[in-house]
Design a protein that fits this description.
Blueprint (H helix, E strand, L loop, with lengths): L6 H7 L11 E5 L1 H5 L4 H13 L4 E6 L4 H10 L10 E4 L4 E4 L7 H11 L2 H10 L4 E3 L8 E5 L6 H8 L3 E6 L3 E6 L4 H12 L6 E5 L5 H4 L4 E4 L5 H4 L8 E3 L4 H11 L11
Parallel strand pairs: 1-2, 1-9, 2-3, 9-10, 10-11
Antiparallel strand pairs: 3-4, 5-6, 6-8, 7-8
The protein binds magnesium ion.
Length: 270
């Protein structure tokens, strides 16, 4: 009888490239305002370091963007040296993909798909009647994505939508995501870390807006970058493992890594 494969082996089997076996650091970064934030010199430095340290630093994008948008971004930012991560958590936690091919990983996405089944058909007509929201032109998977007009949106109407078994997440006072209840950047990240059998002491997350709050609420070491939105900053007192950086974007990420004791990984680079 063949031995049953572990989730780590199953996940590795669904990836096009081998993950570092025992990384010194698992760096989980939001994109807009975080890994894409900060000055160009800081961005170049951090992107170059991530590429040079691929065997020691397992890098995960954790973003509200869909996979098509991540692919576009990787093309656009190549000039600054941004390379593919090892893994991508996209669609605000409802998609997990190989960083190299951007192919979704069934091990992670199938259970979310099952929780999402039937919900769009039920919710789309209800959401269409809510003033102050407009569908985003994205190919969102296992979620619905809208732009909001904060002056017009009545949050009580979102509470009625949530009664159907979804979470309504407003971020950056601009974006509304409707996700299967309990699915977010934090829940998907914790599942992924379990499958990868990663020691949580080696993990640092970073973000700047409210859809990153679920990552910070996991209790993992986290960096709130200096340009974080006010609503996220307001949550800081109840996030004991979250470091508030002064630096914006990439500079803030590096500052946070030093704070959490990963400065030795930079050697002479920073
Ligand atoms: Mg962001």
């Amino acid at each position: 009888m063949p031995l049953e494969r572990s989730p780590r082996e199953l996940l590795q089997g669904q990836l096009a490239a081998t993950l570092p076996h025992a990384p010194d650091l698992v760096l989980v970064t939001d994109l807009d305002g975080t890994l894409l934030g900060g000055s160009d010199p800081w961005r170049r430095r951090l992107y170059g370091w991530l590429q040079a340290e691929r065997q020691r630093v397992l890098h995960v994008f954790c973003t509200g963007r869909d996979l098509a948008s991540v692919a576009r971004l990787l093309r656009e930012e190549r000039e600054l040296g941004l390379g593919s991560p090892h893994l991508v958590i996209g669609d605000v936690g409802s998609t997990v993909a190989c960083g190299h091919t951007l192919e979704p990983l069934p091990l992670a996405t199938d259970p979310i798909e099952a929780r999402w089944a039937g919900l769009p058909e039920r919710l789309l007509p209800l959401l269409a009647r809510i003033p102050g929201i407009a569908a985003q032109p994205v190919t969102a998977q296992r979620r619905l994505a809208y732009l909001i007009d904060p002056a017009e949106l009545d949050h009580d109407q979102l509470a009625e939508i949530e009664a159907h078994g979804v979470d309504c997440l407003v971020s950056d006072n601009r974006y509304l995501d409707v996700l299967p209840a309990g699915v977010n950047k934090g829940s998907t990240l914790l599942d992924l870390l379990d499958w990868l059998e990663v020691d949580h002491a080696r993990v640092v997350t970073a973000g700047d807006t409210l859809n990153d709050l679920a990552m910070f609420e996991t209790g993992l070491q986290s960096v709130m970058v200096g340009n974080a939105e006010a609503a996220l900053l307001a949550a800081l007192p109840r996030l004991p493992r979250t470091y508030r950086a002064r630096g914006h974007g990439c500079e803030g990420i590096v500052e946070g890594l030093h704070h959490f004791g990963f400065g030795h990984l930079f050697e002479a680079v920073f």
